[in-house]
Amino acid sequence: MPAQAVQPPGELDPQVAQLEPETQSLDPVAADASTVFARDDIVVRDPLESALMSEGERAALQAVADSEPGGSYYGGRPAFPATWSMMETDYVQTPFPQVTQLPISSGFGYRSGGFHGGTDIPLAPGQEIRPVANGVVSAVWQGDNPGGGGYAVFVDHNIDGQFVQSWYPHMQAGSIRVEVGQVVDISTVLGGVGSTGRSTGPHLHLEMKNSDYVSFDPLRWLQTRETRLEVG
Ligand SMILES: [Zn+2]
């Protein structure tokens, strides 16, 4: 009886409501367009599914990025602003969505030796690293930077309209699969875990910056937004 089920009881047609079960007929209400299911009433929004881009969607956004003059940029604003403005998302994940329990060797915050601006996640060399959300690659280091980051990828995100940048340093040499200006989604592999730069063992130092270009606790932030995250 879907035709009745969509109506709150108070709005049932009295004639229909009074029918005995064995004499019920949908005929009287079937002609009333207001009693049919709208498509939006039965579509359940899957946030993961909606965050994944179709080929066409990605190509359209990439065309915008390719037309922008942006290049590597480090600061609290997007390197590719037009593309960034079109990529608002609310879906975030850890860089290792396939790993259910993330080991942490050093957390965000003060430690002996100074302030640690990210969270260290030790995983096997080559473990695939994905972006924490859809975004645009704003910088790539091929092991040639003085800061100790080794091979690194930086991605700009538009999270509910807010600028967020994520860093993925210490990647395995030669593992980086993206370039500056590339549109990425949550399924894109950026590269693999390594120990390049100032690092004592294979790990990802996940660091995230806000629009003031201040680092904030990445896993705490992800934990409050992402339901599948389990930190071990
Ligand atoms: Zn670190």
TrEMBL record:
Ligase as UniProt keyword: no
Name used for this protein in its record: M23 family metallopeptidase
Organism field: Agrococcus sediminis
Keyword Metal-binding among record annotations: no
Pfam families: Peptidase_M23
Alphabetic keyword roster: Signal
Domain M23ase beta-sheet core: 115-211
A molecular-function term among this protein's GO annotations: metalloendopeptidase activity
